[in-house]
């Protein structure tokens, strides 16, 4: 795993599979936590369980991912 700084000066954890996509995990994730990783894939954004790198990957269109991230940032999916 490599650690780098984003333009917003946040730490970013990047996981590289051999000759594969760059998987990213939230900097807010904790060891043993319920985390997902994301990567740019042909056809959209891949989402996988951070504890099962060889497991299934859900791919969503890039526009759908962008919409979801925007909604989350606006608090539209917060629990009451």
Chain-wise SSE layout:
Blueprint: E1 2-5, E2 11-16, E3 22-25, E4 36-41, E5 44-49, E6 58-60, H1 62-73
Antiparallel strand pairs: 1-2, 2-3, 3-4, 4-5, 5-6
Describe this structure in words.
The protein is of the alpha+beta class. The chain has one domain (2-73). It is built from one helix and six strands. The protein has one helix at 62-73, and strands at 2-5, 11-16, 22-25, 36-41, 44-49, 58-60. It has a six-stranded antiparallel beta sheet with strand order 1-2-3-4-5-6. The longest helix is centred in the last third of the chain and has 12 residues, at 62-73. The radius of gyration is 13 Å and the shape is globular. The N and C termini lie far apart (35 Å). The relative contact order is 0.13. Mean pLDDT is 81; it is low at 1-12.
* Low-pLDDT segments: 1-12
Radius of gyration: 13 Å
Give the neighbour order of strands across the main sheet.
1-2-3-4-5-6
* Tally of distinct domains: 1
Q: What separation lies between the terminal Cα atoms?
A: 35 Å
Major sheet summary line: 6 strands, antiparallel
Instruction: Give the SSE order as H and E letters.
Output: EEEEEEH
Q: Outline, from the CA principal axes?
A: globular
The SS-based structural class is alpha+beta
Percent helix = 10-25%
What integer is the average pLDDT? 81
Query: Given the structure, what is the number of helices?
Result: 1
| Tally of DSSP β-strands | 6
Strand content: 35-45%
InterPro entries: DUF397
Pfam family, one: DUF397
Protein name: DUF397 domain-containing protein
Organism: Actinomadura fibrosa
């Amino acid at each position: 795993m490599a650690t780098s700084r984003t333009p917003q000066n946040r730490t970013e954890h990047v996981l590289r599979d051999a000759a594969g996509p760059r998987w990213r995990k939230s900097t807010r994730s904790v060891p043993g936590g319920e985390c997902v990783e994301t990567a740019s894939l042909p056809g959209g954004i891949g989402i996988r369980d951070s504890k099962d790198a060889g497991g299934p990957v859900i791919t969503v269109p890039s526009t759908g991912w962008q919409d979801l991230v925007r909604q989350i940032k606006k608090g539209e999916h917060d629990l009451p």
